[in-house]
Amino acid sequence: MSVARLYRVGSPFNGAELQEVDFEQSADTMYFAHLNHAPTKLVRADHVDWTFSSIDFTPTLAAPTGLGVTPIVGNSVTSGDSYFPQSANYVVTAVDDVSGQESRASATQTATNDLTLKKNYNFLGWSAVAGASRYRVYKADNTQEYGYIGVTTSASFTDDNIGPDYSDGPPVGNNPFPGSDDYPSTVTFFEQRLLWGRTNNRPNAIWGSRSGSFENMDISRPLKASDALSFALVSGRVNAVNQLVSTTSLLALTSDSIFKIEGGQTGYLTATDFVTRRQNGRGSSRLSPLVIDSVVFYQTSVGNSVRTLGYEFSTDSINSNDVTIFSPHLFRGFDIKAWAYAQEPRSVIWAVRNDGKLLCFTWEQEQQVWGWTLCETAGIVESVCVVSEGAEDRLYLTVRRGEKLLIERMAATRWDAVENSCFLDSAVTYQFEEPQTVLRNLGHLEGMTVSALADGGVITGLVVTDGTVELQTAAMTVTIGLPYTALIETLPLAYQGQAGWTIAKPQTQAKAVIRLIDSRGVKAGPTEAKLEQLRSRINELPGQPPALMTGLYETYLRADINGGARMVVRSDDPLPMTVSAIYLDPSVSE
């Protein structure tokens, strides 16, 4: 038997700050950004070894130490007009060929010699650096700027009047986030760089690490393509960078506009070659966007809508569309405070409104199918996240029910038998070796009215007392929890007949056909007040639960004359219901 243990580690962020924390993950390291905290990382070294620490933005490869320069005078000329000694300054850096990282420069050493004369040279030596594959040597001749003069795999070098290449200088230490009001609030990865955005002092600025070195913000003089980069977004007003999103291009979602940042002539984002362009779209809120395939979902900074960003070939730009346009009543006066995307098996966005209600958005871009659903439960949903488990993406929720804050997991969508399915909230499943009637450990549902699915049979109206419930009939497989109602209502039927459109004309529907998949306990009717259960028992033996319904089911509806033929389908029991199509046979008064 395995034993679960809880591991805890102190966090620099308090509970009130969590909603404003932005994060990105690379393997066992997660990077955090918040306006009140220096850039932070969480490193997982082992199952029980997790560490938060501030990022100091220095190369992991140490700079060489112990540099010494000895002038060697081998020429016989040591005076007169032909002898003109010059001072030269030297620094050395270490290079790791595996990571491609270059250290900062060593301390400067100076030598005076006339290197224009034969047999004269300056000899450099230093202490070897652990992890270094080779060393780069830089020299400054009569200037404060250094230029590259050579490379060596040993801890020594000879300069016999090598001319510096001033287009290739050594790295210079740089930390753009030195203190309060200079801490960034958003972070993302893009093209082997870690990018940060928006501080209090520079709300429209973006910074990027050196290429391939996420915790190194060093630059060179002059700049190299692989150096750290920084720039500001300018478009007639200060655009606070609320989010950075990595797609085929880098998108900056600001409070007023959407910007696309990409490489210039090289096609790659570098410190010396990039362009920023304002795109179509509206400003973004601080809610972290979701990237689904090639589409970005974000919440607008003004209003309450959710919009998408995607490339439009006809305009060669990023265009934005409102995906709440058919369900504005679900968003009017509300904000989304947390959301997550579950790709498998049904491509769904789960979103938490600021009133604690849960929204579900089905998104199938290839089929042009999308729509919002309101999911209500006996509690307040505070946050959600999605974790991939096997062949499914499972939703985890924090739900406040009464005085208890619970962490709940959405039940699996795939099951082998109806008794192993779960269509109850805050549910607990029991598997007994012998049939039992008493169910314990239900303290989180104390005093609540619950329902159960016992060996495939539905039991309703149970009340949890002292953390227990007693069944009238013993069962081996029982799932018990809070019941909910699943409700589908079609839009009023509108089509153009021989006498014109049917809109606003008296209509009724006498018959309908429903296509079901593995469903049971389904009710249907023209309105909620006139529902009747679809016949489900066919060849089952007495005492057996009804079989699941799959296929086309015809039902005659109770008469209801209205201004638009419609159909309501409902399930009140903890049973599966999947409706793939509804066909109506309407009668319209011409």
Main sheet makeup: 5 strands, antiparallel
- The tally of helices reads 0
As a whole number of angstroms, the C-alpha radius of gyration is 34 Å
Give the helix level as a range of percent.
Answer: under 10%
Q: What are the low-pLDDT stretches, counting only 5+ consecutive residues below 50? A: none
Characterise this structure.
- With 590 residues, the chain is an all-beta fold.
- The strands form 13 sheets. Strands 6, 7, 8, 10 and 11 form a five-stranded antiparallel β-sheet that branches. It has a four-stranded antiparallel β-sheet with strand order 1-2-3-4, with no helix packed on it.
In brief:
This protein is an all-beta fold and 590 residues long. The chain is 0% helix and 48% strand.
List the helices and strands and how they pair.
Layout: E1 22-26, E2 29-34, E3 37-46, E4 49-54, E5 68-72, E6 86-96, E7 101-102, E8 109-113, E9 121-125, E10 134-141, E11 147-152, E12 156-159, E13 171-172, E14 186-190, E15 193-197, E16 205-208, E17 219-220, E18 229-232, E19 241-246, E20 250-254, E21 258-263, E22 274-279, E23 290-292, E24 295-299, E25 306-312, E26 317-322, E27 336-342, E28 348-353, E29 358-364, E30 369-375, E31 380-389, E32 392-401, E33 404-409, E34 425-439, E35 449-454, E36 457-463, E37 469-482, E38 486-489, E39 496-497, E40 500-501, E41 507-519, E42 523-525, E43 532-533, E44 549-556, E45 568-571, E46 579-588
Antiparallel strand pairs: 1-2, 2-3, 3-4, 5-9, 6-7, 6-8, 6-10, 9-12, 10-11, 13-17, 14-15, 15-16, 16-18, 19-20, 20-21, 21-22, 23-24, 24-25, 25-26, 27-28, 28-29, 29-30, 31-32, 32-33, 34-37, 35-36, 35-37, 38-45, 39-40, 41-44, 41-46, 42-43, 42-45
